[in-house]
Design goal:
Blueprint lengths: L3 H5 L1 H6 L7 H21 L20 H28 L3 H28 L2 H22 L5 H16 L3 H9 L1 H13 L6 H16 L4 H23 L3 H16 L3 H15 L3 H11 L2 H18 L1 H9 L3 H10 L1 H19 L2 H21 L13 H37 L5 H17 L1 H14 L1 H26 L3 H10 L1 H11 L19 H5 L19 H14 L4 E2 L2 E2 L6 H7 L8 E3 L26 H6 L5 E2 L16 H15 L4 H16 L1 H4 L2 H9 L9 H6 L10 H5 L6 H8 L1 H28 L6 H6 L3 H12 L4 H15 L5 H14 L2 H15 L7 H4 L5 E2 L3 H9 L1 H4 L2 H8 L9 H21 L1
Helix pairs in contact: 3-4, 3-16, 3-23, 4-6, 4-7, 4-15, 4-16, 4-23, 5-9, 5-10, 5-11, 5-14, 5-18, 6-7, 6-15, 6-18, 6-19, 6-20, 6-23, 7-9, 7-12, 7-13, 7-14, 7-15, 7-18, 8-9, 8-18, 9-10, 9-14, 9-18, 11-13, 11-14, 12-13, 12-19, 13-14, 13-15, 14-15, 15-16, 15-18, 15-19, ...
The structure holds a DNA duplex.
Length: about 950
DNA sequence: GAGTTTGAAACT
DNA sequence: CAGTTTCAAACTC
């Protein structure tokens, strides 16, 4: 079911309602699809399909990966649907199209004028890319989270792209479009109009002419201002001419656009137009329309969305191929364009945005987007929830770590934004993203952005807007984007299973291109004897299906063997609930001390390995060391991103002669000792650090994947000492040692986080509780929505938000429970995942509180710490918790578990174990609903066992 | 590309 | 729980 079937299913669904794109449509199928594709995305480059349906098989990464995977899927699904709709629309020579085409022309003209000013330079996707990225970010975030939730926005973007694709009679046109950047917008428009036949070149020329003709009199300088007005006018005209239902658009906006797209009034309109797009068959036309009518920003958003969609699109093609009721269209789009097309399409979409968008607007829009995005997550559930981590527990963590490390809390946000933008740009031009390169690029982009005053303003706005939430969303966005690109690559490359088949369908060439483009970095497994059914296999461990990039032999980690995979996963999880949990736990604790001062989060122990390494000869200086190891996301995805875990060794490590560059075990002790000294005192610096840390964490996957800590906890602390961070946190568990918490924390507690925990258990609990509440509220809302309108209604939202999140939320809401022990653990992990975004607002509040109370950490910690706290035996070393201690797939199931056995919650382990095993199936809401009980039962069983 | 080294994962 | 084996990645040549 997970991968293949779902993908297929979506097709019909999409096909059925060609015109209507109601988010609901995405529902089950879309969810499945999203899940499937997302998996791929997660691994990104490789497009490794995750184990969708597998309830137990945590989707690969219960935490982040799943989300990422899902996102792409959702996007794909949506896209497929959209495509269908587009096809229909495009195919239909409706009056709307005509009118639209006309409008587009006008639009184009206007845009060009604007572009000439702003974008002329911008045209190169790069410049626009930033904005686009920003805009896109939201979308991406949606996509990312959307794993479950199908972001309307994303859909819209997808729709646009698809529509464009549809409009393009020939894949070649798309390519040409890509090549002819300037012509992109026009091309897109034309495509939308169905003028693709003429060819890109003609488009380029025509639009220009049009500009001259229509706006010849207008100065370029006027472009921006007038453009806006013109845009509006045009939009209104278009609407009228098209007979499009503005209302629909508005309503739709309510879904997706409001959340993300709502930027400015104009942008809103744009968003609406987009939404209207999705709904209306003439989506394509709408897209252009939006571009023209709405602010460039909106366009960029759309573009970014489309772009991301495209990126996802790679997977999309798969999904589309699988799902698309009309293989022709799919084939046309996918095969002709495949990955490349996706990128191209992105380029197109981006180009539109780029051209149209002006920095200022961008800035504004971005800020708004950031804001909107946050709400959207709630509203839409889609992106915000993104649960960055969803992408990948470890990987994400590593990624996030990297980001924050570089620039720290707020900075990380900026990076996220910037990176988003840069990524978008690059991705536009370059579909394939190379993990490290991408990151670097992102960072570079970030720098660039920072340099630009406008960008700065944006950044500031973003940061201010939702603070951590925004940053998170952004971060997630970035990661998502990266993943997206990677995923697309992977999708392209991946041909395994149905999903893979889909890719294959697209076109080997495309795949190859993508692979080649993106991917050298994206390594995948090379298993020969394990059949990719053991943790030896990175893919399997990551919860991803093996794909083309893999050179494994006798691989069973494929959609075709889903049942086998699931069973195996279950077995492994039964042995070690944390087996699939992220290995790296966030550094919450450590960051503050050394790294902060230095500004290096990475440095010493920003993140910790769950179990800790056991190096004896490598001195923790080689990749053999899991702490030092460069986590290429461990997953294929990671490989692409190639994020360095940069995890310092900690007490948990049993390494000998540790020389870990990122933090020696000895150093860790020292730091701990220092911390201990100051533990009792929460200096302002610590508080600030905490704040920063929170922000960073928000961005960091760890939060998303608090599981690790919990897991560690759960591990029983076999290595109590082993798991540096976790143990630290765990120790504090009030229950276990309320009074001695600090003591219990022991050395590790030294970490600021630990300190915080120590400082006030109450605070922690309270904070965590609050978080829970907040999250719960949001979750509840989401959950309600989900439940009420499972997939269909809020496909995007429900589906994605870290796919599992909705479930979790629902579970949480159910559980709601409370009291800390159980609730906390679950809530924490769950919250984070699901609400990295949603929570933001709450988080911000909490941060503020923390400021005053220093409880922020609590929240953060709560996620894991609570888990840990709950864990009866904090000291148990990580190993104990998870012998393997590898990736603990966190959370998804945690909620369920929590729900199932609140009473058992106390025993962190039980909880953890339950949670771990019960990874929510990749499939979104549906699964969650249906499986929730199962997972619960499982958890409960585990708990009973415990 | 083949072989070696390494340490995690799995097994006993 | 400890020890051993298996495994695949990382590394070296």
């Amino acid at each position: 079911m997970d991968s293949p079937e779902p993908t297929k299913s979506p097709i019909p669904s999409s096909a059925a309602p060609s015109s209507s794109f109601s988010p609901v449509q995405e529902s089950p199928f879309s969810n499945f699809v999203s899940n499937l594709s997302p998996i791929k995305h997660d691994k990104v480059p490789h497009v490794a399909p995750r184990f969708l349906g597998l309830s137990s098989p945590p989707l690969v990464f219960t935490s982040p990966r799943i989300n990422t995977l899902k996102r792409p899927q959702s996007s794909n699904v949506e896209v497929s649907q959209n495509v269908k709709g587009d096809e229909q629309s495009t195919n239909r020579p409706g009056d709307l199209e005509r009118s639209v085409s006309e409008l587009h022309r006008e639009m184009i003209v206007d845009i060009k004028e604007d572009d000439t000013k702003d974008s002329m330079s911008v045209q190169p996707s790069s410049s626009s890319g930033c904005v686009d990225e920003y805009l896109a970010d939201p979308v991406e975030a949606d996509c990312v989270d959307s794993a479950y939730s199908v972001n309307l926005n994303f859909k819209q973007s997808n729709n646009v792209l698809e529509s464009s694709a549809n409009g393009l009679p020939c894949s070649k046109n798309l390519e040409s479009v890509d090549k002819h950047y300037s012509g992109r917008e026009t091309d897109a428009v034309q495509l939308l109009l169905g003028q693709s036949e003429k060819g890109l070149e003609t488009f380029d020329i025509e639009p220009l002419k049009i500009k001259e003709d229509q706006h010849g009199g207008q100065g370029i300088s006027d472009g921006c201002r007038q453009i806006d007005s013109d845009m509006f006018d045009l939009s209104s005209q278009e609407k009228e001419s098209k007979n499009l239902n503005p209302q629909k658009g508005v309503e739709d906006d309510g879904y997706g656009c409001d959340g993300f797209l709502q930027l400015q009034p104009g942008s809103l309109q744009m968003a609406q137009a987009y939404e209207g797009f999705a709904e209306n068959v003439g989506v394509v036309t709408d897209a252009p329309f939006n571009d023209t009518t709405h602010d460039l920003e909106a366009i960029e958003h759309l573009r970014g969305m489309s772009r991301r969609c495209l990126q996802f699109g790679e997977p999309q093609p798969e999904s589309t191929a699988n799902c698309s009721g009309s293989p022709n269209l799919v084939d046309d789009v996918t095969t002709s364009v495949p990955l490349a097309t996706s990128s191209k399409t992105e380029g197109l979409g981006s180009s539109h945005v780029d051209l149209s968008t002006s920095r200022k607007r961008r800035l504004v829009n971005l800020s708004q987007l950031a804001i909107n995005m946050i709400p959207q997550s709630y509203d839409n559930r889609s992106s915000l929830t993104v649960s960055k981590p969803s992408g990948i527990g470890l990987h994400l963590n590593s990624i996030f770590n990297a980001i924050p490390t570089d620039q720290g809390g707020t900075v990380s946000i900026k990076l996220a934004v910037d990176s988003m933008g840069t990524e978008g740009i690059k991705s536009a031009s370059i579909t394939s993203c190379q993990s490290m390169e991408n990151m670097e690029n992102c960072s570079d982009a970030f720098e660039k952005v920072s340099t630009a005053p406008q960008d700065r303003t944006l950044e500031a706005k973003v940061s201010t807007i939702e603070g951590s939430a925004a940053s998170e969303s952004l971060c997630t966005m970035e990661s998502i984007e990266c993943h997206m690109t990677i995923n697309t690559k992977r999708k392209l490359s991946s041909g395994d299973g149905d999903i893979n088949e889909v890719f294959n369908q697209q076109s080997p060439k495309n795949k190859r291109k993508k692979l080649s483009d993106s991917d050298e970095g994206c390594k995948r497994c090379n298993c020969k004897k394990s059949k990719c059914l053991k943790l030896y296999c990175d893919c399997f461990a990551a919860g991803i299906y093996c794909a083309e990039p893999c050179s494994c032999q006798g691989c069973f980690n494929r959609p075709e063997y889903e049942s086998t995979v699931l069973e195996t996963r279950q077995q492994i999880e039964s042995r070690n609930p944390l087996a699939f949990a992220p290995k790296i736990v966030q550094p919450v604790t450590e960051v503050p001390v050394n790294s902060r001062e230095d500004g290096n989060w990475k440095t010493p122990s920003s993140a910790r390995h769950k179990r800790g390494c056991n190096c004896k000869r490598s001195m923790c200086l080689k990749k053999y060391c899991e702490c030092y190891q460069v986590w290429n996301l461990q997953l294929p995805e990671s490989s692409c991103h190639a994020f360095h875990a940069n995890v310092g060794c900690s007490i948990g490590c049993r390494c000998e002669g540790c020389k870990n560059v990122y933090g020696k075990k000895e150093d860790y002790y020292v730091t701990e000792a220092i911390v201990k000294r100051g533990v009792g005192e929460l200096s302002e610096s610590t508080v600030a650090a905490k704040k920063d840390f929170l922000h960073s964490e928000l961005c960091n996957p760890h939060y998303l994947t608090p599981t690790t800590p919990s897991f560690e906890h759960s591990d029983h602390g076999k290595n109590a000492s082993v798991s540096g961070l976790l143990p630290m946190r765990c120790l504090p568990s009030p229950e276990s040692d309320p009074t001695n918490v600090s003591l219990a924390k022991s050395p590790r507690t030294s970490n600021t986080n630990d300190i915080l925990l120590e400082t006030s258990k109450e605070n922690l609990y309270v904070g965590s509780y609050r978080d829970k509440i907040n999250y719960n509220n949001a979750d509840n809302i989401l959950a309600d929505d989900c439940h009420q309108t499972p997939l269909p209604n809020h496909p995007s939202i429900i589906i994605d938000s870290s796919s599992s999140k909705p479930r979790e939320l629902t579970n949480l809401s159910r559980l709601n429970l409370g009291p800390r022990s159980g609730c906390f653990t679950l809530g924490g992990s769950l919250r984070w995942r699901r609400s990295p975004i949603t929570p933001k607002s709450p988080i911000d509040k909490e941060l503020q509180q923390l400021d005053s109370d220093g409880g922020l950490y609590d929240i953060l910690e709560d996620d894991t710490p609570e888990m840990l706290k709950d864990t009866s035996t904090p000291l148990k070393s990580v190993k104990a918790s998870s012998p393997n201690g590898k990736r603990v797939s966190p959370p998804h199931k945690l909620h369920q578990l929590g729900s199932s056995s609140l009473g058992s919650l106390r025993s962190g382990r039980k909880f953890m174990l339950k949670a771990v095993p019960s990874f929510p199936p990749l499939t979104p809401c549906i699964v969650s609903k249906g499986n929730s009980n199962e997972s619960r039962s499982n958890y409960e069983e585990d708990g009973s066992k415990d």
